[in-house]
Structure prediction request, 198 residues.
Amino acid sequence: MSNSKTISAKLPTKWGDFTIHSLEKFSDDKEHIALVMGDLTEQEPVLVRIHSECLTGDAFSSLRCDCGPQLDAAMQKIAEEKRGVIVYLRQEGRGIGLINKIKAYALQDDGLDTVEANINLGFKADQRNFKVAADMLKHLNVNKVSLMTNNPRKVAALEAANIEVVERVPLKFGRNPHNESYLLTKHGKLGHLLDDND
Prediction:
């Protein structure tokens, strides 16, 4: 990472003007990016969302998951704060890739839940590696964050990389009748904090 070259460009969005950053290479050879708004050199914690790529939710507004609404909500919160980072990880389908994700969808159509489907295809329930997100944040000189997440694994990954998580900001958006069982599985089997009491 230390020898990686940052490539940056302006990215106007419906939420405001961001700067998009990429690095020429990562340890996993995927093209991850970060969207940045505001001055990251201030000492106050940076509002951060680590978001895993979800083509169906982010681009096609799928109701099978809550990904698209979470991404929109995170960008809106950053725009309101006028400062923050979206780390966008190319880890589709909790790390199994787009085609395998569609295979998992087909298995879910036949009655398996999202965890059972991934395991049935020979994968772990969640194959994502959040170390690359910590690497990106460190490259941006972000060492203290308010993390927008419902997933304790993301908090643990940043803390393991010596990035201080001063606050976990719940991001409970996008619940609907089509993804109710999916969210219950994320809560019950993957430990996501989705209850009203969390």
